[in-house]
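Encode chain A's predicted structure.
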Amino acid sequence: MVLDNFRRKLRQESKIWRDEGLINSSQHQQLSDRYQFNKIEEASRENFIILVIIIGSVLLSLGVITFIAANSQAWSREVKLIVVMSLLIGTSITGFNYFRQGLASGSGNKSQRSKKTLGEALLFISALILGANMAVMAQIFNVSSSSSALFLAWGLGVIAMAYSLRLTSLGILGISVMQIGYSIGVEEWFNSPAIDSWAQLIVRHMPLISWLLYIPLAYLCLSRWIFALAAIAFATALQLNLNPLQRLSYADIAPWVASFAFALPPALWWSYDDLLFPKVNYRLFQPLARTLALIFFGVIFSVLSFRWQWDTSYFSTLNNDGNSVLRSLPFLDIGILSGLAALQWLYLLRHRNSISRKLDINLIAIASFIFLTALVPYWHQAISPIGPLAIFIFNSMLSIFACGLMREGMLNGDRRAFWGGMLLLTSQIISRVLEYDTDLLFRALVFAFCGWGVMSAGIWFERRLSSPPKKS
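Encoded structure for chain A:
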């Protein structure tokens, strides 16, 4: 979609350039051939058709599931089995045949591309029907299982389809279904920490499973969407399983838990390198991984800069059972992922040293952020409570991080980095004013100062971007 918008704007601008005499007709035709201006509308129609097919597939699948549920009492066991299996097999085989025909013919024939789109839609429908099929089969054969187990089994089935067919749509659906099953199962696991089923075992090790199961799928599908969802699923599962914010206020209960929970995601993401994978000779996801690391820093610094996070009486309902806590921790996940992060950093440092011996300020800053993010919670829990100092450290890191983003945005002309840093710095100032007991007049002055600062900085930055570079 972004590429189509760029091509559409370029087509409009190139016509203006040709009419004003900036380029001749031959140069305009070269631009038209290079960016395929004649296929922009066709691509837009195909994107719209794909969106309509996805919406229709979801509605059609809901209709099928509702129809089966409405007649479940009237049908016999054999009829139910025949109906659900026929729907699943029929849509799967038909979709696979259309999809294979579209792949075999390439992208030159419009009718064959339509077959590929139709096949992908039918496969998407079959993936949705797979969940209904599992639920009906469990009901027919009186298989007692939790909702978490059903969604996890469904998600694994869709992920298997995505691996075999290399379809981004199925990968996104599979990850989404798996996360629904995880969110249901993690609550059940908290209520009963004992591992008594395969579903609870998956829930316990979801951080590791998310990384090892979803990341290779992103490469097979060449999809940044899948990589982003995989990274978010990993970070979410790690935070929920370790529960660092609640355990942060208690000493002598695995004091390293919060350190790993806060420092491991950015350590993995910033040091991530596609070249570590065999048979991968290009960096497809490294920029996205580093962007996610920066977003995580902004979120975690903002959260830990609040005073109540370090208040020992805030989380008074925590079960202070050290043995129970230790039994519920995913040691395997932490060990493997920490080892992977260490290997990635060794590779990063060795590769950096082989290119240049100069100090990389950004790399030093990121490494310092990760080190302090791990050290401060551990010191607070294991050695001595340092609540006021911890608040000062994380507020300082948040300010430095925000100013660093603004600096990078000014140096590279990156609006997202500049405005991200501006948003973090402004929100930090406002949240500190609201968090502490301050006078209303002082708050009014701070709000006015922030508003004036944002407008002034924004106007100055945009003028700086639009002004031509000075000739040396």
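Residues 216 and 278 are 11 Å apart (CA to CA).
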